[in-house]
Amino acid sequence: MTKLIMIVDDSASLRQVVAISLKGAGYEVLEASNGQDALNKMTGQKIHLIISDVNMPIMDGISFVKAVKQLPQYKFTPIMMLTTESQQEKKMEGKAAGAKAWLVKPFQPNVLLNAVAKLVLP
Questions:
Q1: What is the pTM of this model?
Q2: Where in the sequence is 4-aspartylphosphate found (predicted)?
Q3: What domains appear along the chain, each with residue ranges and CATH number?
Q4: Where are the beta strands (DSSP E) in the chain?
């Protein structure tokens, strides 16, 4: 069964770069442009991993992580933050909200795929 990964980022070009890497590695991809858009697209399908930006309009990444953790169906879905934010404070905030990993942009596709392989649900 193909694993589904959701990419949440307000940059279409970044979503495209991440999607190309993931699809190349055999994953299916679901894209959303911000936290609210992502929540609207979480309609009960199994999502094996969420990759989310931190700074987005409408609903930012940290608020999004907190919202996902409130959903019984997605409470255990691992979330990786992919962001330009490298401050320890933000990382702690992300971790406290429930993010499992933190990858700073710009990233190397192989580093992303290694992190994905470790986090993705079976």
A1: 0.96
A2: 53
A3: 4-119 (3.40.50.2300)
A4: 4-8, 28-32, 49-52, 79-83, 101-104
